[in-house]
Amino acid sequence: MKLRSIQLVSFLLTLFLASTLIGCSLEKKQTLGFQNFYPGKLWSDADSVHINAHGGGILYYDNTYYWFGEHKSAHTSSAQVGVNCYSSTDLYNWKHEGVALSVNDSVGSDIEACCVMERPKVIYNAETQQFVLYFHLELKGKGYSAAHVGIAISDKVTGPYTYLRSLRPNPGIWPQNMKGEQQTSTITTDNFSAWWTEEWMQAVKDGLFVRRDFEGGQMSRDMTLFVDDDGKAYHIFASEENLTLHIAELSDDYLSYTGTYIRVAPGGHNEAPAIFKKNGKYFMITSGCTGWDPNAARLFSAESIWGPWTQHPNPCVGPDADLTFHSQSTYILPVAGKDDAFIFMADRWTPKKPIEASYIWLPIQFENGLPVLKWQDQWDLSVFNETK
Ligand code: GAL
User: Fold this and answer.
1) Residue 29 falls inside a structural domain
2) Residue 325 resides in a domain
3) Ligand 1 pocket residue status of 55, Cβ below 6 Å
4) The domain containing residue 114 runs over which residues?
5) pTM of the model
6) 347 in contact with ligand 1, CB cutoff 6 A
7) What mean pLDDT do residues 84-106 have?
8) Tens-place pLDDT, residues 265-308
9) Is the beta carbon of 223 within 6 A of some atom in ligand 1?
10) In total, how many domains does the chain have?
11) DSSP characters for 99-146?
Protein backbone atom coordinates (compact mmCIF):
# COMPACT_ATOMS: atom_id res chain seq x y z
CA MET A 1 0.00 0.00 0.00
CA LYS A 2 2.80 2.35 1.01
CA LEU A 3 4.81 1.40 -2.08
CA ARG A 4 1.80 2.07 -4.30
CA SER A 5 1.27 5.58 -2.96
CA ILE A 6 4.99 6.40 -3.41
CA GLN A 7 4.71 5.21 -7.01
CA LEU A 8 1.59 7.32 -7.51
CA VAL A 9 3.21 10.41 -6.05
CA SER A 10 6.33 10.03 -8.22
CA PHE A 11 4.13 9.41 -11.29
CA LEU A 12 2.14 12.58 -10.59
CA LEU A 13 5.36 14.51 -10.00
CA THR A 14 6.79 13.36 -13.34
CA LEU A 15 3.55 14.27 -15.04
CA PHE A 16 3.61 17.72 -13.48
CA LEU A 17 7.25 18.32 -14.44
CA ALA A 18 6.69 17.12 -18.00
CA SER A 19 3.63 19.30 -18.50
CA THR A 20 5.43 22.32 -17.04
CA LEU A 21 8.35 21.77 -19.43
CA ILE A 22 6.06 21.34 -22.44
CA GLY A 23 4.09 24.40 -21.38
CA CYS A 24 7.27 26.46 -21.10
CA SER A 25 8.58 25.44 -24.48
CA LEU A 26 5.22 26.10 -26.13
CA GLU A 27 5.12 29.50 -24.52
CA LYS A 28 8.67 30.18 -25.70
CA LYS A 29 7.72 29.20 -29.22
CA GLN A 30 4.67 31.42 -29.15
CA THR A 31 6.61 34.45 -27.95
CA LEU A 32 9.49 33.92 -30.34
CA GLY A 33 7.40 33.00 -33.39
CA PHE A 34 9.36 32.26 -36.56
CA GLN A 35 13.12 32.47 -36.38
CA ASN A 36 13.80 31.24 -39.90
CA PHE A 37 12.59 31.64 -43.45
CA TYR A 38 11.02 28.54 -44.99
CA PRO A 39 10.87 29.24 -48.75
CA GLY A 40 7.82 27.80 -50.47
CA LYS A 41 6.00 26.85 -47.24
CA LEU A 42 2.78 28.40 -45.96
CA TRP A 43 3.78 31.53 -44.04
CA SER A 44 1.42 32.48 -41.21
CA ASP A 45 0.96 36.03 -40.02
CA ALA A 46 0.34 36.97 -36.37
CA ASP A 47 -3.30 35.82 -36.76
CA SER A 48 -2.12 32.41 -38.04
CA VAL A 49 -3.35 33.19 -41.55
CA HIS A 50 -1.13 32.61 -44.63
CA ILE A 51 0.33 35.99 -45.63
CA ASN A 52 -1.61 37.42 -48.55
CA ALA A 53 0.79 39.88 -50.21
CA HIS A 54 1.76 38.55 -53.61
CA GLY A 55 3.91 40.22 -56.25
CA GLY A 56 4.97 42.41 -53.37
CA GLY A 57 7.69 44.76 -52.28
CA ILE A 58 8.95 46.07 -48.97
CA LEU A 59 9.48 49.55 -47.58
CA TYR A 60 11.73 49.97 -44.55
CA TYR A 61 10.47 52.95 -42.59
CA ASP A 62 10.95 54.01 -38.97
CA ASN A 63 12.72 50.78 -37.95
CA THR A 64 9.92 48.65 -39.36
CA TYR A 65 9.52 46.69 -42.57
CA TYR A 66 6.23 47.15 -44.43
CA TRP A 67 5.36 44.48 -46.95
CA PHE A 68 2.84 45.53 -49.62
CA GLY A 69 1.42 42.95 -51.97
CA GLU A 70 -1.55 41.79 -53.99
CA HIS A 71 -4.41 40.36 -51.98
CA LYS A 72 -5.35 37.18 -53.85
CA SER A 73 -8.58 35.31 -53.37
CA ALA A 74 -9.34 31.62 -53.63
CA HIS A 75 -10.65 31.40 -57.18
CA THR A 76 -9.53 34.44 -59.16
CA SER A 77 -6.40 36.48 -59.66
CA SER A 78 -8.36 39.64 -60.34
CA ALA A 79 -8.52 42.18 -57.52
CA GLN A 80 -11.40 41.59 -55.10
CA VAL A 81 -9.90 43.44 -52.15
CA GLY A 82 -6.84 45.47 -53.16
CA VAL A 83 -3.31 45.96 -51.91
CA ASN A 84 -2.53 44.37 -48.55
CA CYS A 85 -0.03 45.66 -45.99
CA TYR A 86 1.91 43.77 -43.31
CA SER A 87 4.51 44.98 -40.83
CA SER A 88 7.48 43.34 -39.17
CA THR A 89 10.56 44.29 -37.21
CA ASP A 90 12.46 41.03 -37.75
CA LEU A 91 11.34 39.96 -41.27
CA TYR A 92 10.20 36.53 -40.02
CA ASN A 93 7.03 37.53 -38.17
CA TRP A 94 4.40 39.67 -39.85
CA LYS A 95 1.32 41.47 -38.61
CA HIS A 96 -1.52 42.22 -41.00
CA GLU A 97 -1.99 46.00 -41.02
CA GLY A 98 -5.04 45.85 -43.26
CA VAL A 99 -5.80 46.86 -46.81
CA ALA A 100 -3.60 49.77 -47.91
CA LEU A 101 -5.48 50.50 -51.13
CA SER A 102 -8.97 49.09 -51.53
CA VAL A 103 -10.76 48.32 -54.73
CA ASN A 104 -13.55 50.80 -55.36
CA ASP A 105 -17.28 50.04 -55.26
CA SER A 106 -18.32 52.54 -57.91
CA VAL A 107 -18.99 51.14 -61.36
CA GLY A 108 -16.55 52.40 -63.96
CA SER A 109 -13.85 53.34 -61.44
CA ASP A 110 -10.34 52.44 -62.65
CA ILE A 111 -9.90 50.31 -59.56
CA GLU A 112 -13.34 48.75 -59.55
CA ALA A 113 -13.41 45.24 -58.05
CA CYS A 114 -12.40 42.64 -60.68
CA CYS A 115 -9.81 44.93 -62.19
CA VAL A 116 -6.20 43.69 -62.04
CA MET A 117 -3.92 45.25 -59.42
CA GLU A 118 -0.50 43.68 -59.52
CA ARG A 119 3.02 44.10 -58.18
CA PRO A 120 2.39 47.07 -55.84
CA LYS A 121 5.47 48.92 -54.56
CA VAL A 122 5.60 51.76 -52.03
CA ILE A 123 8.32 54.38 -51.63
CA TYR A 124 8.60 57.26 -49.18
CA ASN A 125 9.21 60.81 -50.28
CA ALA A 126 11.07 62.62 -47.51
CA GLU A 127 10.40 66.07 -49.04
CA THR A 128 6.64 65.73 -49.25
CA GLN A 129 6.47 63.22 -46.37
CA GLN A 130 4.12 61.13 -48.46
CA PHE A 131 4.08 57.43 -49.12
CA VAL A 132 3.68 56.77 -52.82
CA LEU A 133 2.24 53.53 -54.17
CA TYR A 134 2.65 52.39 -57.78
CA PHE A 135 1.05 49.25 -59.15
CA HIS A 136 0.25 47.56 -62.44
CA LEU A 137 -3.38 48.26 -63.29
CA GLU A 138 -5.56 46.52 -65.83
CA LEU A 139 -9.11 47.75 -66.21
CA LYS A 140 -12.05 45.53 -65.37
CA GLY A 141 -13.12 43.32 -68.25
CA LYS A 142 -10.31 44.45 -70.54
CA GLY A 143 -7.87 41.59 -70.03
CA TYR A 144 -4.30 42.89 -70.01
CA SER A 145 -4.83 45.45 -72.77
CA ALA A 146 -4.77 48.68 -70.74
CA ALA A 147 -1.16 48.17 -69.57
CA HIS A 148 -1.39 51.08 -67.14
CA VAL A 149 0.46 52.06 -64.01
CA GLY A 150 -1.74 53.16 -61.11
CA ILE A 151 -0.57 55.75 -58.57
CA ALA A 152 -1.86 56.31 -55.03
CA ILE A 153 -0.64 58.27 -52.00
CA SER A 154 -0.96 58.34 -48.24
CA ASP A 155 0.37 60.34 -45.28
CA LYS A 156 0.48 57.17 -43.24
CA VAL A 157 2.61 54.21 -44.26
CA THR A 158 -0.09 51.59 -43.72
CA GLY A 159 -2.68 53.71 -45.53
CA PRO A 160 -5.45 54.04 -46.45
CA TYR A 161 -3.95 55.17 -49.75
CA THR A 162 -5.85 57.56 -52.00
CA TYR A 163 -5.95 56.54 -55.64
CA LEU A 164 -4.79 59.41 -57.87
CA ARG A 165 -4.77 58.20 -61.46
CA SER A 166 -3.53 55.62 -63.93
CA LEU A 167 -1.60 56.19 -67.11
CA ARG A 168 0.83 54.97 -69.72
CA PRO A 169 4.18 56.66 -69.05
CA ASN A 170 6.01 59.17 -71.21
CA PRO A 171 3.56 60.06 -74.01
CA GLY A 172 5.18 62.07 -76.79
CA ILE A 173 8.72 61.48 -75.52
CA TRP A 174 11.44 59.31 -77.06
CA PRO A 175 13.66 57.10 -74.90
CA GLN A 176 17.18 58.47 -74.38
CA ASN A 177 18.74 55.48 -76.10
CA MET A 178 16.52 55.31 -79.19
CA LYS A 179 18.42 56.49 -82.22
CA GLY A 180 17.16 59.18 -84.62
CA GLU A 181 16.61 56.69 -87.45
CA GLN A 182 14.69 54.41 -85.13
CA GLN A 183 12.45 57.35 -84.17
CA THR A 184 11.77 58.33 -87.79
CA SER A 185 11.47 54.82 -89.25
CA THR A 186 8.26 54.40 -91.23
CA ILE A 187 7.93 50.70 -90.42
CA THR A 188 4.69 50.10 -88.53
CA THR A 189 2.92 47.09 -87.08
CA ASP A 190 0.88 46.99 -90.32
CA ASN A 191 4.02 45.83 -92.13
CA PHE A 192 3.82 42.49 -90.36
CA SER A 193 1.15 39.88 -90.84
CA ALA A 194 2.77 37.66 -88.21
CA TRP A 195 4.65 38.20 -84.97
CA TRP A 196 7.87 36.42 -83.97
CA THR A 197 9.48 36.38 -87.40
CA GLU A 198 13.12 37.48 -87.61
CA GLU A 199 12.17 40.73 -89.39
CA TRP A 200 9.48 41.48 -86.84
CA MET A 201 11.90 40.91 -83.96
CA GLN A 202 14.43 43.24 -85.56
CA ALA A 203 11.70 45.86 -85.95
CA VAL A 204 10.76 45.42 -82.28
CA LYS A 205 14.38 45.96 -81.27
CA ASP A 206 14.36 49.06 -83.44
CA GLY A 207 11.39 50.49 -81.55
CA LEU A 208 8.33 49.32 -83.50
CA PHE A 209 6.10 49.48 -80.41
CA VAL A 210 7.66 52.64 -79.00
CA ARG A 211 6.62 54.39 -82.22
CA ARG A 212 3.17 52.78 -82.16
CA ASP A 213 2.55 53.96 -78.59
CA PHE A 214 4.37 57.29 -78.86
CA GLU A 215 1.26 59.49 -78.72
CA GLY A 216 -0.63 57.74 -75.94
CA GLY A 217 2.29 56.69 -73.74
CA GLN A 218 4.25 53.49 -73.33
CA MET A 219 2.70 50.25 -72.08
CA SER A 220 3.41 49.51 -68.43
CA ARG A 221 2.85 46.04 -66.93
CA ASP A 222 5.08 44.14 -64.44
CA MET A 223 6.91 46.76 -62.42
CA THR A 224 9.04 47.82 -59.53
CA LEU A 225 10.23 51.11 -58.01
CA PHE A 226 13.75 51.98 -57.01
CA VAL A 227 15.01 54.92 -54.94
CA ASP A 228 18.67 55.69 -55.47
CA ASP A 229 21.12 57.04 -52.87
CA ASP A 230 20.51 60.59 -54.10
CA GLY A 231 16.76 60.28 -53.50
CA LYS A 232 15.88 60.05 -57.20
CA ALA A 233 13.25 57.42 -57.89
CA TYR A 234 12.72 55.23 -60.93
CA HIS A 235 9.82 53.23 -62.26
CA ILE A 236 11.02 50.07 -63.99
CA PHE A 237 8.43 48.24 -66.03
CA ALA A 238 7.74 45.72 -68.78
CA SER A 239 6.76 47.77 -71.81
CA GLU A 240 6.34 47.29 -75.57
CA GLU A 241 4.06 44.21 -75.32
CA ASN A 242 6.37 42.86 -72.57
CA LEU A 243 9.22 42.75 -75.05
CA THR A 244 11.36 45.55 -73.63
CA LEU A 245 11.90 46.94 -70.14
CA HIS A 246 11.79 50.67 -69.56
CA ILE A 247 13.50 52.57 -66.76
CA ALA A 248 11.82 55.93 -66.25
CA GLU A 249 12.87 58.68 -63.89
CA LEU A 250 10.17 60.06 -61.57
CA SER A 251 9.66 63.70 -60.67
CA ASP A 252 10.97 64.96 -57.31
CA ASP A 253 7.61 64.35 -55.65
CA TYR A 254 7.51 60.82 -57.15
CA LEU A 255 4.04 61.49 -58.57
CA SER A 256 4.90 61.90 -62.26
CA TYR A 257 7.67 61.40 -64.79
CA THR A 258 10.54 63.70 -65.76
CA GLY A 259 10.46 62.32 -69.31
CA THR A 260 13.95 60.84 -69.05
CA TYR A 261 13.80 57.12 -69.74
CA ILE A 262 15.66 54.30 -71.44
CA ARG A 263 14.89 50.96 -73.02
CA VAL A 264 16.67 47.93 -71.53
CA ALA A 265 17.29 44.71 -73.47
CA PRO A 266 15.08 45.55 -76.48
CA GLY A 267 13.19 42.46 -77.64
CA GLY A 268 14.58 40.51 -74.64
CA HIS A 269 11.10 39.63 -73.33
CA ASN A 270 11.77 40.42 -69.68
CA GLU A 271 9.27 40.99 -66.90
CA ALA A 272 9.06 40.80 -63.09
CA PRO A 273 11.95 43.25 -62.64
CA ALA A 274 13.69 43.46 -59.25
CA ILE A 275 16.67 45.74 -58.72
CA PHE A 276 19.32 46.56 -56.12
CA LYS A 277 22.54 48.51 -55.85
CA LYS A 278 25.76 47.25 -54.32
CA ASN A 279 28.97 49.25 -54.11
CA GLY A 280 27.72 51.72 -56.69
CA LYS A 281 26.76 49.00 -59.17
CA TYR A 282 23.17 48.22 -60.20
CA PHE A 283 21.92 44.65 -60.52
CA MET A 284 18.57 43.65 -61.93
CA ILE A 285 16.95 40.22 -61.85
CA THR A 286 14.01 39.57 -64.15
CA SER A 287 12.06 36.63 -65.54
CA GLY A 288 11.06 35.62 -69.01
CA CYS A 289 7.41 35.94 -70.01
CA THR A 290 5.54 32.69 -69.47
CA GLY A 291 2.56 33.96 -67.47
CA TRP A 292 2.10 32.18 -64.14
CA ASP A 293 4.51 29.43 -65.15
CA PRO A 294 8.07 29.81 -63.91
CA ASN A 295 11.07 30.13 -66.20
CA ALA A 296 14.77 30.84 -65.81
CA ALA A 297 15.67 34.14 -64.14
CA ARG A 298 17.80 36.63 -65.99
CA LEU A 299 20.50 38.86 -64.52
CA PHE A 300 21.67 42.29 -65.69
CA SER A 301 24.19 44.75 -64.31
CA ALA A 302 25.11 48.35 -65.04
CA GLU A 303 27.45 51.01 -63.69
CA SER A 304 24.75 53.65 -64.18
CA ILE A 305 20.99 53.33 -63.95
CA TRP A 306 21.01 54.68 -67.52
CA GLY A 307 23.04 51.72 -68.69
CA PRO A 308 24.49 50.21 -70.68
CA TRP A 309 22.96 47.14 -69.06
CA THR A 310 24.92 43.92 -69.55
CA GLN A 311 23.20 40.55 -69.40
CA HIS A 312 24.82 37.70 -67.43
CA PRO A 313 23.89 34.03 -67.09
CA ASN A 314 20.99 32.87 -64.90
CA PRO A 315 21.89 33.79 -61.29
CA CYS A 316 20.18 30.63 -59.95
CA VAL A 317 22.29 27.50 -59.53
CA GLY A 318 21.49 23.92 -58.50
CA PRO A 319 18.34 21.83 -58.93
CA ASP A 320 15.44 23.70 -60.56
CA ALA A 321 17.64 26.71 -61.29
CA ASP A 322 16.16 26.78 -64.79
CA LEU A 323 12.75 27.45 -63.21
CA THR A 324 13.99 29.94 -60.59
CA PHE A 325 13.11 27.21 -58.05
CA HIS A 326 9.51 27.34 -59.35
CA SER A 327 9.11 31.04 -58.75
CA GLN A 328 9.19 34.49 -60.33
CA SER A 329 11.04 37.54 -59.01
CA THR A 330 9.17 40.41 -57.42
CA TYR A 331 11.59 42.46 -55.26
CA ILE A 332 15.08 42.58 -53.82
CA LEU A 333 15.22 43.77 -50.23
CA PRO A 334 18.33 45.34 -48.69
CA VAL A 335 18.40 44.15 -45.05
CA ALA A 336 18.58 47.14 -42.72
CA GLY A 337 21.72 47.48 -40.66
CA LYS A 338 23.69 44.85 -42.54
CA ASP A 339 26.19 45.57 -45.29
CA ASP A 340 25.74 43.83 -48.62
CA ALA A 341 22.77 41.83 -47.34
CA PHE A 342 20.04 41.42 -49.94
CA ILE A 343 17.02 39.14 -49.99
CA PHE A 344 15.65 37.93 -53.31
CA MET A 345 11.86 37.81 -53.06
CA ALA A 346 9.81 35.78 -55.51
CA ASP A 347 6.35 34.29 -55.91
CA ARG A 348 5.51 30.66 -56.47
CA TRP A 349 2.18 31.20 -58.23
CA THR A 350 -0.75 28.81 -57.88
CA PRO A 351 -3.19 30.22 -60.47
CA LYS A 352 -5.87 27.60 -59.76
CA LYS A 353 -5.94 28.76 -56.13
CA PRO A 354 -4.22 32.15 -56.19
CA ILE A 355 -4.53 32.67 -52.41
CA GLU A 356 -2.26 29.71 -51.77
CA ALA A 357 0.70 31.07 -53.74
CA SER A 358 3.81 30.92 -51.58
CA TYR A 359 6.87 33.07 -51.18
CA ILE A 360 10.41 32.19 -52.12
CA TRP A 361 12.84 34.35 -50.21
CA LEU A 362 16.51 33.54 -50.67
CA PRO A 363 19.69 35.28 -49.56
CA ILE A 364 21.72 36.74 -52.40
CA GLN A 365 25.26 35.42 -52.39
CA PHE A 366 28.04 36.88 -54.49
CA GLU A 367 30.52 34.93 -56.59
CA ASN A 368 33.03 36.71 -58.79
CA GLY A 369 31.19 39.95 -58.14
CA LEU A 370 27.85 38.62 -59.41
CA PRO A 371 24.70 37.69 -57.48
CA VAL A 372 24.04 33.97 -57.06
CA LEU A 373 20.88 32.29 -55.78
CA LYS A 374 20.92 28.84 -54.22
CA TRP A 375 17.95 26.95 -52.87
CA GLN A 376 17.59 26.72 -49.08
CA ASP A 377 14.87 24.74 -47.31
CA GLN A 378 15.34 26.96 -44.31
CA TRP A 379 17.62 29.86 -43.47
CA ASP A 380 17.97 32.89 -41.23
CA LEU A 381 19.59 36.30 -41.36
CA SER A 382 22.82 35.04 -39.79
CA VAL A 383 23.87 33.85 -43.28
CA PHE A 384 24.71 37.45 -44.02
CA ASN A 385 27.27 37.51 -41.23
CA GLU A 386 29.04 34.62 -42.94
CA THR A 387 28.80 35.66 -46.58
CA LYS A 388 30.04 39.24 -46.19
C1 GAL B 1 2.93 37.11 -65.28
C2 GAL B 1 3.20 38.37 -64.50
C3 GAL B 1 2.24 38.40 -63.35
C4 GAL B 1 0.83 38.36 -63.92
C5 GAL B 1 0.67 37.13 -64.80
C6 GAL B 1 -0.69 37.08 -65.47
O7 GAL B 1 3.76 36.99 -66.38
O8 GAL B 1 4.51 38.38 -64.03
O9 GAL B 1 2.45 39.56 -62.58
O10 GAL B 1 0.61 39.51 -64.69
O11 GAL B 1 1.65 37.12 -65.80
O12 GAL B 1 -0.75 36.02 -66.38
Assistant:
1) no
2) no
3) yes
4) 45-167
5) 0.92
6) no
7) 97
8) 999 999 999 999 999 999 999 999 999 999 999 999 999 999 99
9) no
10) 1
11) EEEEPB-STT-TTBTTSEEEEEEEEEETTTTEEEEEEEEE-TTSTT-S
